[in-house]
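Run folding on both entries below.
>entry_1
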Amino acid sequence: MELIVKGHPVNEIETTICQIDGVEAARIVTESDDISEVHVVSSSPKNLKSLARDIESAVMVKHGLGVDYRKISIAQITSDEQANEPLPRPKLKSVNVETSGIHSTVNVILESGTKEYEGLCQGVASSSSKLRLVGQATINAVDKLGSLPGGISLEDVRLVSTGDRKIVTVCLNLLTIEKELNFSGSCIVLNNENQAVVKAVLAALNRKLEFSLGV
């Protein structure tokens, strides 16, 4: 007997989910003519939140059905090909700061191979907060690679002078299920301070994490 949810065959919804890049299999559990659980197996390196949003959007656009992200369970697997591939090495492509009134929007684009990853951050356009916005936008871009083993936060960003040079230093916090790590990175300001912040964040990740992030 074919399962139907609000007039839509369940197997068609599962097929839609399986068409999302990296999704290997999908199973839907129904209850009272509604989707109660969505189980997905994925080989995509994309972080779970982004993949869950893709599933929500695909089901809504294709079938007009809303799925609460809390009902989506995702199991990530690593294929043999992925295990042999080098880990992503993101590099700075561009950083842009736009200010309107008292607010600033920072856009950071990192490139890894042929792919680009964009991070955005908005906040008050004060001189003290500008570097922090750039740092957070960089973290938001790195997070889209799906390579981080936990949640990362920006603890501090500082611009210091040594001799006739300026150096940007950043402190990051990485929280995983097993432990909490604190580490830092730095970069000499050559072209502009914003670029130095991005490279300092990447340098911090490069030093402390098992995978290698290029600067």
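>entry_2
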Amino acid sequence: MAGKGKILVVDDDRLVLATVSHGLAQAGYEVIDADNGDDAILLAREHRPDLALLDIRMEGKSGFDVAAYLREYLHTPFMFLSAFSDEDTVRQVRELGAVAYLVKPLDIGQIVPTVEAAFARLPERAPMPVSRPAPLAPVATAAGVGDEVVAMAVGVLMHRFSLRRAAALTHLKHLAEEDGRALREQAERVLEAVETLSRPA
């Protein structure tokens, strides 16, 4: 897919998420979006974005949690978009190594140039193997989703079919029942299918 680059946008405010995602897509970027930190990590593992734009304060995993994961395991650069600019927040932003920090409210006309500047500073990124197994904390309380493979498959189904987490898990269970497979085995098949489709022809 042609474009300027792939960006993961994460914000629990749906209006902000939609506005920023649309603006970046209009500017020529491929955008993946998530409204919480757990889904952001799953989508980052699947899509390997070139840059992440993160809200900081969200329910569940915070933007800081997501940033730490991206830095440690996926080596993905990130920037923050937040309504908070207190001393402690700024200190954490610096310690994590963000490429930029934008304070809300902002319009997309201010965000796009900052994103473009961040991309201009990024080195050419070849696919980089993860240096060690990347553990995921359980991302849902629903039965079965504490398993990393199942959690990743649920995230894939949520993204592909625009489902909420519970509906995606139900869909995965239904597929497993139809095929007479265990839930984890069906989850592995979903992930294998994604990997097959993403391979170059």
